[in-house]
Design a protein that fits this description.
single chain; alpha/beta; seven-stranded mixed β-sheet; 40 helices
Length: 1531
């Protein structure tokens, strides 16, 4: 994989359908699909219609993508399938599993690559500056070049032509009479203009002028006078193929006749003259419509039935005895009117079967039949009345729409003011064509039912305000035409495609040819009326276009009113740019906001990794100062605003543009319908008084040329970052910044939304501060008046206002500026303050700004040192021959010397750990302290900030405001000495450069330094670990970092010293005593609560976590040292719970010694020559139970002797009282709780112990609340034989028996006292005893007659294993908890596979949570899943967190549950195993998600019920991470 290849990752989640989400990518990108948490473990298939290499695109042809698994492991976290995107367009994907192939999906839009010039160089989309031309205003073709040259000289690089085809009678640019022919207006006599001529000109412009051309395609309608529509009326919505329009057609004809009557003076007597002048006339129109027109039309009859006819039919059926039923076959089906498909008056019907079932006569008597007919007649009249009311509702809306139309067209100041009602300017625009001579309405209605005539009554097109753009308003089900809601284009017929080409073959073929002509000669299209174009039609046509022009540039303007709906069109059609308009801004502040909205990253943005998530985006913008079909800005704002608003637009990091006439200051809208004049031509020597020519002195052309050039330079040179500053209510400053060179261009525009001649602008312009050194004034320009010219509309040419021009200077020094008064530099030289003297409304000034020389040099040197992390930094780098000594070696070489313990300090360490060394985590003012003092604390925060470029975050504020955080990082490491100090000096040297940069750049370069260093250190950590980690998935690697996170060395050693005779123990010099001391790494139980002091190291936690965190990761020496250190503290045959460096140990847990033995066994099996540990010397701190602590080396024993002592002491029985028993060691425990006991039942072989006042297993919550009276009472004493201890002891004795057979363990067994005699109990016999008794005594069969079951009345879950055997409270034995799964993993031979699976299924059903296992059956009466240790109330079961192990979901047991499931499902069979693998992957995916999102980069101790966050839990816990890592190892 190329290091710089851009890769985007799309995470798939079940039922996530993203058709309304836009994902934009560039050609050359690789797109990876990965499985989200809801899909991991499932056999997911991903399908796409992106073609295979070498194939052409077929929208309907999907293929399955191949999965890649880099690690080859079962773990799904890194599995992906990919697309190498080398083709422009829109491509769909969907995914599924099993029989459901469409569980989710979406679209990917790939941008086209545009090429221009003789050398075919790339024109980036953000470089585009486009100008729209109304094609009909270009005149004869041989004059086009002179007129188009205006765009070239004005600095545009793309032209948008309105359609070049033959126009309809209305002369609207968008009403085309023939889509296949060039407009004959462009030809001269004897000199016909052809498509080939157009193509040659377009090609010349591309090669010689460096300009591309696009044109419109209009798929929605054709001109009413199109000859082909007359020959093929099926291509429109006519009254034959769309009879549902008949009522609307009748109304439309009635309104036409009303027009004729008003023009003829018929209604003058009623107060309605032809000239409408006010509301009184509107009220008369309303009265006429409601009182005269509608009652005569009786439009409701089209939706009603003939009651007499229906009753007569019903009577006949009853008399004939047809279908008599006493009950309805479907009670939910009611009688309703069935619409007549031909829409004849009173032509509707009802379902007679339903009528016969609804109205059933009591007998065959005629009176009964008549009674039913009467009931039916009544019901039918009611139904007819409902239809009448509905049509009346539509009619009221139609009246409102007619009146609104009259208001706009005849009364409104912003409307066309059409004047009197005439046939040329009717009351309302006609909705339908009527190519016959008008007669009476009655005669015309008869024609409606004559197919040879009705087929020519075709619906016009238009648009509907607020309508659903995905609905075709001319199809059945829409009442738009009847309600007169269509804003109609009376010159165009709406086209009726149907659903597929077969539905209207001629139309599809005709429009396909039209599309192919366009794609052949133009590089792009503007899809006119996009939001009303049927999507399936546009898809088909654009597929045809892309076959001819693969990199088709597709532009559209959408009016959906919703970004989500916009995205549907962009996704389905592959729209490259959406047209946006600056004229939509109501003030300069909004105009500036649009610049920021439509493109670019914030200035000072972070460097993003080449592999990162694919995130939703907004559509690429074509930001226009004005579009060709909108009102003139001069009329709405002022002529003076043309230049500054253009400058604001041109600074947007997207495509920009304008329409011809804007730059010449044409003071009116150039109508796409009525304008027939031609554009002026270019002439360098033009006189302002000559309306037919323009040059750089015309309007704002000189200014537009300058800002267009600047726009193109900024986009092509990588000025990708944008900052918009609203200086005051009229002044907008826009900065474009290059993240590679750190050069900026700052444009200051003083807008003039109000005419300066009529509005008094403030004279005092606020000064501006510009960071850096101003190299030059790129341009300064302002609109000025020139006399004696004034505007007069020319009859032949579209002329602008000659009285205005632009005064402009380009590339001048600051001292020569006429707009800037003077500048003041700050003491550091990083900022220049600008004072203005002549920034009048209508002015623009643009500064080119560089970093000051020292900062420029520093950034170049800094980038040269960052190249070691990414080639991205080569651009703008400066070679460094005099680098500080600390920087002469790559960081990776320094990192090679770091140990994992040093990496723990470098990367992690929570606040409590750091405080032990006299430090602490860095605190961000106004926010929060970092989670870690090491790099992870910073990286976790930056990982959230970076993707969103959240430069306003308090973290970034802190970096910009001072060097405190920077100095903290280097200072903390330098103070440690050794290799860590070398790393600290490397940071310090890098930060020397960083501190010389402008403060706004510090966050992004700080991030680059930190990320580069961080990834280097992670690689170094993994390089010191096992092949399981090195070759593992990302999930495995990140879990393995838990070993570094939780296993470290503090200021004070946490472990007792090992035997001096061990030669490979790590040592250091104590800073205070200056003496040599051992420094073995210790495991913290969890962060932040169990990280320091006496509470860091726990025997139980250490040995539950040791296999996963140390053995599987390959940290064998650290594992050995911890095993031997704890062995040295053996006392009473037990391993301590809290070790307290040995001298403060508490021996109050029964299980730690068995977990320790399990780890010794694991060490022997996993580590090469692992059994050597059995002969390693152990320095006994307590040679006897009562001896004081002894120094290391005084009494050494081989480890196998210590193991034997632990085993022997258990069979002898352990009874003692804790030393210093009482308040000083446990402020909550009752006196009896300090009595510790443990032993072995020689009949069953089970280890037992404890009493009801102490808790010797991991479920060790002691009651603390006096208010609730649970103080001193264990919530879960689990006395007797706890199931996991029995399993662990079985594992130990079985292993020792096997070792003895191999002569690797010198002891055959233990000595027991039986009947006063000492006897040998071999490990083999002990093993057999447990085997024989375990399932017999622990399995809950549910058989009430089972003779072994002592308490059948306590059984409430069958097919499970007891949590304990022989508890002092017998009901505790029968509680469903997850502990039996531990025994299943360490001693699977104890379980019958089928019984084991049944129990595991019950655990899955009742205990399995999102991240952890419920610690108690939710059906248990004391279950409570929410742990709140601060709550002190009178509730015995929850006060002071009494329910710690009575429901909350602990993570570490889930590892044992999953491992047990994997083991036994494999025995049961492949199908069961496959299902289990899915479950395991699915569960682990949630851990992966948590791990990725957690700022602690760990897995918590526990969650509340259903995975809810628990604030009292450790955020990262050793055994949680370990147990999940062990599952992945097994998987």
């Amino acid at each position: 994989m190329a290091q710089n290849k851009q890769i985007r990752v799309l995470l798939l989640n079940d039922m996530e359908k993203l058709e309304k989400t836009l994902f934009r990518v560039e050609q050359g990108f690789e797109l990876q699909f990965r499985l989200g948490p809801t899909l991991q473990g499932k056999a997911v298939a991903v399908y796409t219609n992106y073609p295979s290499p070498g194939d052409s695109f077929n929208r309907h042809k999907f293929r399955a993508l191949e999965w890649h698994n880099p690690t080859g492991r079962e773990d799904d976290s890194d599995k992906y399938c990919k697309l190498d995107l080398q083709m422009a367009g829109s491509f769909q994907y969907y995914f599924g599993y099993g029989t459901d192939h469409q569980r989710g999906g979406g679209c990917i839009v790939v941008d086209p690559i545009l090429r221009v010039g003789a050398d075919d160089h790339i024109l980036p989309l953000d470089c585009i500056t486009i100008q729209t031309y109304l094609a009909k205003c270009l005149g004869p073709f041989d004059e086009w070049e002179d007129r188009l040259r205006v765009a070239k000289e004005s600095g545009y690089n793309m032209i948008h032509f309105t359609p070049l085809q033959t126009l309809g009678l209305s002369r609207s640019c968008y009403s085309l009479a023939d889509q296949l022919q060039v407009n004959p207006d462009f030809s001269r006599p004897g000199q016909k203009c052809t498509w080939e001529d157009v193509g040659k000109l377009v090609d010349k412009m591309k090669k010689d002028w460096n300009m591309l051309c696009i044109t419109d395609v209009v798929y929605n309608h054709t001109a009413s006078n199109s000859k082909w529509i007359t020959k093929h009326p099926e291509c429109g919505y006519n009254l034959v193929n769309s009879p549902h329009l008949k009522p609307a057609w009748v109304l439309d004809r009635a309104l036409w006749h009303l027009t004729c009557d008003v023009e003829n003076g018929v209604y003058e007597a009623k107060g309605l003259p032809a000239l409408i002048t006010g509301d009184a006339h509107k009220n008369v129109i309303k009265k006429i419509l409601l009182d005269d027109i509608y009652p005569k039309l009786k439009l409701w009859e089209f939706f009603q039935l003939d009651v007499d006819k229906a009753v007569q039919q019903f009577r006949a059926l009853l008399t004939q005895g047809v279908n008599k039923k006493t009950t309805l076959s479907n009670p939910k089906v009611h009688l309703k009117i069935l619409q007549d498909p031909e829409y004849k008056r009173l032509g509707c019907t009802v379902n007679m079967d339903i009528a016969l079932e609804t109205f059933v006569p009591h007998s065959d008597e005629p009176s009964s039949v008549e009674e039913c007919c009467t009931f039916l007649e009544k019901r039918l009249k009611e139904l007819n009345e409902e239809k009448r009311r509905l049509v009346s509702y539509h009619q009221e809306q139609a009246v409102n729409c007619v009146l609104a139309n009259v208001t706009y067209e005849r009364l409104a100041d912003h409307g066309p003011k059409l004047g009197p009602i005439t046939r040329r300017h009717p009351l309302v625009t006609r909705y339908f064509t009527f190519p016959f001579k008008a007669t009476t309405l009655e005669v015309e209605e008869e024609m409606m039912h004559q197919p040879d005539k009705a087929c020519y009554f075709m619906a016009h097109n238009g648009w509907v305000m607020g309508d659903d753009p995905l609905r075709n308003f001319a199809e059945p089900g829409s009442d738009v035409y009847l309600r007169r809601e269509l804003i109609c284009w009376g010159d165009s017929v709406k086209l009726r495609y149907g659903e597929k080409p077969e539905d209207c073959p001629y139309l599809w073929e005709h429009m396909k040819k039209y599309t192919e002509i366009t794609a052949k000669y133009f590089c792009g299209m503007r899809l006119d009326n996009c939001h009303s174009t049927p999507l399936h039609v546009a898809e088909y046509m654009l597929d045809c276009a892309r076959t001819l022009c693969p990199d088709l540039y597709l532009v559209a303007e959408l009016f959906t009113g919703s970004e989500e709906l916009d995205n549907i069109f962009v996704n389905r059609l592959g729209i490259s740019s959406l047209i946006r308009e600056a004229m939509s801004a109501y003030n300069s502040h909004e105009e500036g906001r649009l610049v920021y909205r439509f493109g670019g990253d914030p200035v000072g943005s972070f460097v993003q990794p080449h592999l990162r998530p694919l995130v939703p985006s907004i559509a690429h913008a074509m930001f226009m100062d004005v579009t060709h079909d909108n009102e003139c800005p001069i009329q709405l704002r002022s002529a003076y605003d043309s230049l500054p608003s253009s400058a604001v637009v041109s600074m947007a990091c997207c495509a920009t543009g304008s329409t011809r006439g804007y730059d010449e200051l044409v003071p009116h809208q150039i109508s796409v319908v009525s304008e027939e004049r031609f554009y002026p031509k270019w002439n360098d020597d033009a006189d302002p008084s000559n309306a037919g020519v323009v040059n750089l002195q015309s309007g704002i052309i000189a200014g537009k040329q300058a800002v267009n050039k600047l726009h193109q330079e900024l986009a092509s040179s990588g000025f990708l970052q944008v900052y918009v500053d609203q200086v005051d209510e009229d002044i907008v400053a826009v900065t474009r910044h290059s993240p590679n060179t750190h050069q900026s261009v700052v444009t200051v525009s003083r807008t003039a939304f109000r005419d300066p001649k009529k509005f008094q602008y403030r004279s005092d312009v606020p000064p501006m501060c510009i960071p850096g050194k101003i190299e030059e004034v790129v341009l300064e320009a302002r609109i000025v008046e020139r006399k004696p010219f004034s505007y007069k509309k020319d009859p032949k040419t579209i002329n602008g206002m000659p009285e205005y021009t632009v005064e402009i200077s380009e590339h001048i020094q600051l001292k020569d500026s006429k707009i800037v008064k003077h500048t003041v530099g700050t003491s550091k030289g990083h900022v220049q303050e600008i004072e203005f003297k002549n920034l009048t409304p209508g002015s623009v000034i643009a500064f080119r700004v560089s970093l000051d020389p020292d900062a420029q040099k520093a950034v170049g040197l800094l980038r040269s040192h960052l190249i070691q992390f990414s080639p991205h930094f080569k651009s703008g780098s400066v070679s460094n021959d005099s680098a500080a000594d600390a920087l002469k070696l790559p960081l990776a070489l320094i990192a090679l010397k770091l140990t994992l313990a040093e990496l723990s300090l470098l990367l992690y360490r929570c606040d409590a750990e750091e405080q032990e060394d006299g430090g602490g985590c860095y605190n961000i003012p106004n926010w929060t302290p970092l989670k870690y003092a090491g790099l992870q604390g910073l990286v976790s925060v930056m990982a959230d900030i970076r993707p969103k470029n959240d430069l306003g975050h308090p973290f970034c504020d802190n970096l910009r405001n001072g060097d405190w955080m920077i100095d903290y990082i280097s200072g903390r490491l330098i103070s440690r000495g050794g290799t860590l100090a070398e790393v600290g000096k490397w940071f310090q040297a890098m930060f020397v450069y960083l501190k010389q940069l402008p403060r706004y750049l510090i966050p992004c370069y700080f991030d680059a330094i930190l990320v580069g260093a961080y990834t280097t250190f992670l690689d170094q950590a993994w390089s010191q670990m096992s092949s399981f980690v090195q070759n593992g998935s990302t999930f495995v690697k990140h879990l393995a970092l838990g070993s570094v996170q939780l296993c470290g060395i503090g200021k004070v050693p946490k472990l007792p010293p090992l035997s001096p005779s061990l030669t490979d123990v790590p040592y250091r010099i104590n800073n205070i005593t200056k003496e040599k001391e051992q420094c073995c790494a210790s495991l913290a139980a969890g962060l932040p609560h169990f990280s320091s002091g006496i509470f860091r190291c726990w025997g139980r936690d250490t040995f539950i976590a040791l296999r996963g965190l140390l053995l599987l990761t390959g940290r064998f020496l650290d594992a050995r040292n911890i095993i031997l250190a704890f062995a040295g503290t053996l006392r009473h045959g037990l391993i301590p719970n809290l070790i307290g460096e040995g001298v403060h140990a508490r021996y109050n847990c029964r299980d730690a010694v068995w977990w320790w033995l399990q780890c010794v066994q694991d060490y022997c099996k996993i580590v090469p020559n692992g059994t050597d540990i059995l002969t390693c010397p152990v320095s006994r701190m307590y040679p006897t139970d009562d001896s004081p602590p002894k120094p290391a080396g005084l009494m050494d024993q081989p480890l196998h002797d210590v193991i034997q002592e632990a085993m022997q002491r258990h069979v002898e029985g352990i009874q003692f009282r804790e030393r210093n028993a009482g308040f000083q060691i446990d402020m909550n425990m009752r006196d009896e709780g300090f009595n510790v006991s443990a032993g072995v039942d020689l009949e069953t072989g089970f280890v037992f112990g404890g009493n009801r006042f102490n808790c010797g297993t991991w479920m060790d919550k002691m009651g603390e609340s006096e208010k609730a009276r649970n103080k001193g009472i264990p919530a879960t004493p689990r006395d007797g034989s706890a199931v996991e201890i029995v399993g662990l002891s079985k594992s130990a004795v079985h292993w020792l028996a096997e070792l003895h057979k191999k002569k690797m363990f010198p002891y055959q067994g233990v000595t027991v006292l039986r009947n006063g005699n000492h006897e040998m109990l071999s490990y083999e016999s002990w093993d057999q005893k447990i085997q024989e008794n375990f399932e017999k005594l622990f399995y809950v069969s549910g058989d009430p007659n089972d003779p072994i079951e002592k308490h059948p009345n306590l059984v409430h879950k069958h097919g499970i294993y007891k949590d304990s055997y022989g508890a002092s409270s017998p009901w505790c034995d029968y509680q469903l908890r997850p502990n039996f799964t531990i025994a299943m993993v360490v001693a699977p031979e104890l379980f019958t596979p089928q019984k084991a699976m049944t129990a595991l299924e019950m655990a899955e059903k009742k205990l399995l949570g999102p991240l952890g296992m419920k610690t108690l059956d939710p059906d248990d009466m004391v279950y409570c899943g929410v742990y709140d240790n601060s709550l002190d109330n009178d509730n015995y079961n929850v006060a002071k967190g009494f329910n710690y192990h009575q429901g909350p979901e602990w993570l570490w047991p889930i590892g044992y549950f999953l491992r047990a499931k994997l083991h036994f499902s494999k025995i049961i069979g492949q199908e069961t195993y496959d299902k289990t693998v899915f479950l395991v992957k699915n569960v682990l995916s949630r851990h992966y998600l948590h791990l990725e999102r957690s700022p602690w980069k760990g897995l918590p101790e526990l969650t509340n019920e259903n995975g809810q966050y628990c604030s009292f839990s450790c955020e990262t816990q050793a055994w949680s991470i370990s147990s999940v890592l062990e599952v992945l190892y097994d998987l």
